[in-house]
Amino acid sequence: MNARETILNSCPLGEPTDPWPAPYFVLPPGSVVEAFKTSLNLLGARTIDENELAGYIGPKTWVEPNAGLEVNALNGFQNQVDLWDAEVGIASTVLAIAQTGSVCVKSGQGNSRLATLAPPINILIVHRNKIVPSLLEALELLPDGNVAFITGASRTADIEGVLVPGIHGPKEVLVCLVGGEH
Amino acid sequence: MRSASASKVTARERALKTLFCEPPQAQDTASAIKSYVLDHLRTLLIELEAQCLSNGIQVHWANNAEDANQIIVDLCKESAKPGDVIVKAKSMATEEIHLNHHLDEAGFETVETDLGEFVVQIDHDTPSHIVTPIIHKTRKEIAASFSREELGPYTEEPKELTMQARAHLRKKFREAKIGISGVNFAIASTGHLVLVENEGNNRFCTTAPDVHIALMGIEKVLPTPAELPLFLPLLAASATGQLLTTYVHFIKSPRQERETDGPKAIHLVILDNGRTNVLQGPFREILKCIRCGACLNVCPIYRQASGHAYGHVYSGPLGEVLAPALEGVESFGDLAKASTLCGACQEVCPVKIPIPELLLEIRHRANSPSTSEKLAWTSFAQASQHPLVWKFGLKLLPLAPMARHPFLTSWLKRRTLPTRVGRDFRGWWNERS
After folding, report:
1. Would you say B188 and B222 are in contact if contact means Cβ atoms under 8 Å apart?
2. B208/A33 Cα distance (integer angstroms)
């Protein structure tokens, strides 16, 4: 018998059971956009306006092709820097979660995983109408493919419990809110 | 270390109250889901395997640590040559099978990339906590290690030390041929490998190299993504008091045509290593564990003794059950005595594992005391009943640290004898009167 069969034969098949009760989340009060901003604040992630984006554009900025298509300030921008050496990375997102201040990024169609990881400053473009209240809705809408939820800057507290941002990924995460709420 | 544990305990409570209307109900539900998983393990693993295969993830099965190490070393040899860099994300399963040792033997440069694990690795130390591995080290000790390894100018500032590690490890990520990680949750219905972390090293390990190898215990499977809104925040809150970890990765497939980065091949190694035995025995509930470390932070014994005292990869209340459950009560049954049975561990456990009950069961099953232990107690009983022998023994006491009996030296490896202060009571009394 190979390892697969040995292991599986030692595991129970099980009978169908009743579904379990859903956990009740504390939902953020008020509009999801305001709640999302509050959560970002608690994480130390700033929100910026679309017109502030221009200030971050430079030779060491890396802009995801998709992000440029959606936002006026980035239209026509040409990347001149290797992603590994970029100082600012601007990326688009597919979802955001008000309860936790998280954004969901999806790899593929020009969207790179390193764009939200390698540059020390990371700007995430979030559409106001893509913000959902909690993880419940986010997992229901989970896009197909390789995706990730990002909640604030990369961080560690391994040395004497002192919180230090930017151990491996971005030291600073900025969220640029675009579009109308509905 | 004690204050570090205490602040995590408060942060945990605050996060749970922010997230859930009724935190105990969330814990009960999570426990029920994990019961379902253990009861349906075969069905779920078969489904997971089928989904992974159809998504392009290759699946391997390992009966024990030896097989798992062999599978992983062989996979590494296929895509890297001796001297090549392999980057590792933090994973208790890889600690459990002592993978690094095998990769080093095969000639690879294995680099732990979690900051804590990195420090443990350069110091040839072992982790003392399953979530925060260097909770036992001071900034001064870390500063000394970094300057010894020439990572940068000497500094004791956590921020600067962190940046030195960032620069060093960034080079390793860029060089690495293979990335190795654990798995926090594997979703049977979709084949997603779900990994959580705060540092971003996991994201590098599973993005930058061409090959990603993930190792998971059979119990890590969950039925559907619908269970994650409960488990993800429960794990984050219980581990560090966060609402959600900085990163949650949903890894579904190797790099697709329209992706610009990500591994070209993903291997999932499914590990038994004693778990199917535990599943059929009295300690099966411990397989619900999601490795959050909340029971360590709250345990009065762990807070005093720290992780190294347990002598096993898994420490704290969880280790007191898991170590003997996986490796036999004969070898690790003693660990179950390192508990006051106060029940704090069960109270904070996100999946409500009845740890005190399991500890009692282990104590009940553990072997009777060893011959040397019996001898020690018999001698003590005899001595305490015979004043002359007792007095003679007391006179010998100052000589105790000089004893070099092999039994004593092995016993003293992890213990420090208290220094004798002052003198014996009788002598003092006689002189006084």
Report:
1. yes
2. 34
- Cβ under 8 Å to A: B residues 239-268: 240, 242-253, 256, 258-262
**Amino acid (1-letter code) at residue B104:** D
Least Cα distance to B84 among B154, B178, B159, B14 occurs for B178
- Given 3-state DSSP classes, what are the helix, strand and coil percentages for chain A, each rounded to the nearest 5? 25, 25, 45
Instruction: Calculate Rg over the CA atoms of chain A.
Output: 20
Residues 26-65 of B with CB under 8 A from A: 26, 29, 32-33, 36, 38-43, 45-46, 61-63
Q: Is the predicted pLDDT of residue A21 greater than 80, yes or no? A: no
pLDDT value of residue A28 = 78
Report which of residues B410 and B352 the model is more confident about. Answer: B352
Q: State the nearest Cα–Cα gap between B398 and chain A, in angstroms.
A: 38
Which of B29, B45, B248 comes nearest A20 by C-beta?
A: B29
Element (H, E) at A43: helix A32-43
The partner residues of B197 in beta bridges, in order of sequence, read B247
Three-state SS at B27:
helix
Put simply, the answer to whether A146 touches B158 (Cβ < 8 Å) is no
pLDDT band at B289 (very low <50, low <70, confident <90, very high): very high
> Can you give the pLDDT at residue B103?
98
Cβ separation of B19 and A157 shorter than 8 Å? no
* pLDDT at residue A110 in the model: 78
Please determine, for residue A177, whether its predicted confidence score (pLDDT) is greater than 70.
Answer: yes
**CA angle, A74 then A78 then A82, to 5°:** 115
Candidates B249, B213, B242; CA nearest to B228 is B249
Q: What's the whole-number mean pLDDT along residues A121-125?
A: 97
Stated pTM of the model: 0.90
Residue B2 above 70 pLDDT?
Answer: no
pLDDT band at A65 (very low <50, low <70, confident <90, very high): confident
Instruction: Write the DSSP string, B373-426.
Output: HHHHHHHHHHHHH-HHHHHHHHHHGGGGGG---HHHHHHHTT--PPPP-S--HH
- Interfacial B residues in 66-125 facing A (CB < 8 Å): 67, 113-116, 119
Mean pLDDT within B106-114: 97
Q: Where are the domain boundaries for CATH 3.40.50.10420 in chain B?
A: 40-100+178-273
Does B282 have pLDDT greater than 70?
yes
Q: Which residues pair with B57 in a beta bridge?
A: B266
Test mutation, A25, A117, A141, A146, chain B, max B CBs within 10 A: A146
**What is the identity of the amino acid at B297?**
N
Query: Cβ contact (<8 Å) for B115 and A159?
Result: yes
Quick one: what percent of chain A has pLDDT higher than 70? 99
The end-to-end CA distance of chain A, in Å, is 58
Give CA–CA dist A133/A99, Å, rounded. 6
Q: To which CATH superfamily is domain B40-100+178-273 assigned?
A: NagB/RpiA/CoA transferase-like (3.40.50.10420)
| Predicted local confidence at residue A104, as pLDDT | 97
Domains of chain A: 30-178 (3.40.50.10420)
Q: Is the pLDDT of residue A98 over 90?
A: yes
